[in-house]
Design brief:
Blueprint lengths: L1 H24 L4 H18 L16 H28 L1 H10 L2 H10 L6 H16 L12 H28 L5 H23 L6 H27 L2 H22 L7 H18 L1
Helix pairs in contact: 1-9, 1-10, 2-8, 2-9, 3-4, 3-7, 3-8, 4-7, 5-7, 5-10, 6-10, 6-11, 7-9, 8-9, 10-11
Length: about 290
């Protein structure tokens, strides 16, 4: 069952990437789409949660640390997207993608060393091969002149924020999943992300949305929501030290296939090598 949830989470994540890529190709404003995405995702998740009754007079008490976790993840979710977009523009796509993918070491470390998950030796080999394949699959890194300390910190911010976001989901699953449902938890995260994005648009005086942006935002919100929820479901049934590399490597393998078939991408020899290693690592991790 865990593999089914992983497959559903990966499918939703791939859909997010394709929707946003289509939006960029059609010259839509990505931040506007993300704001609608978080609002619609939050509302949909809340409607599906058992805690919906709190809005009809029944009080739900949340632990302070859980509220802090929701607030932190809400900030990270949207901030990471903004920093990622800026990093691609300032230091290049290769460095930015490498930083995001290698953040995998954080949730793996939390799963193994904080929560003491136990896995067999061959799985460790699969994890190592997964990390190696992710590096090899990174697009060619073009040399760019980094102008200032702020530019140099962008990939590091992506590395830490992506790792913190994934680790936060693991923390919820192990410590707080008995306090509130997955739907209510994700709804809170998305609502915080919406408030932050909405505030950014107000500051920029860009608080207007086209019908296409609203439509794309709603579609993104649905798949984004279930990408996170299915991932949490998988974490309940399988060690996070296996779930996170399986998800990341699957995204790389399938995303590459979509890029070749639909977007006419042409992987380099290094990327083909990474793809082969990624497939072997999946066999070791799933087997």
């Amino acid at each position: 069952m865990a593999l089914i949830y992983i497959t559903l989470s990966v499918s939703c994540s791939l859909a997010i990437a394709q929707i946003l890529k289509l939006a960029e190709n059609r010259k839509m404003r990505v931040l506007n789409i993300l704001v609608i995405n978080y609002l619609s995702g939050s509302a949909l998740s809340l409607m599906n949660s058992s805690e919906l009754t709190m809005f009809f007079g029944i009080k739900v008490d949340l632990p302070l640390w859980l509220m802090l976790l929701i607030g932190m993840l809400g900030f990270i979710f949207i901030a990471n997207m903004v920093v990622y977009s800026k990093s691609i523009d300032r230091v290049g796509m290769g460095v930015s993608i490498a930083a995001m993918r290698m953040s995998l070491v954080f949730p793996i470390g939390v799963s193994l060393f904080v929560f003491g998950e136990q896995i067999v030796g061959v799985k460790y080999l699969g994890i190592i091969m997964a990390l190696a394949s992710l590096l090899l699959m990174v697009p060619r890194i073009k040399t760019r002149q980094i102008s200032g300390l702020s530019d140099a910190w962008l990939p590091l911010l992506i590395f830490f924020m992506t790792g913190a976001a994934d680790s936060g989901l693991k923390v919820y699953e192990r410590i707080f999943s008995s306090s509130i449902s997955e739907e209510f938890f994700v709804s809170g995260i998305f609502f915080v992300s919406f408030l932050i994005g909405f505030g950014i648009l107000i500051k920029r005086r860009e608080l207007h949305f086209s019908f296409k942006e609203i439509g794309y935002g709603f579609a993104t919100g649905v798949v984004n929501l279930y990408s996170s929820i299915f991932l949490i479901y998988a974490l309940k049934l399988m060690p996070g030290s296996l779930v996170f590399p399986i998800v990341n490597v699957s995204l790389v393998v399938l995303g590459t296939g979509i890029g070749i078939w639909f977007w006419k991408d042409r992987p380099s020899v290094k990327q083909w090598s990474g793809l082969a290693i990624a497939i072997i690592s999946l066999i070791l991790l799933v087997g």
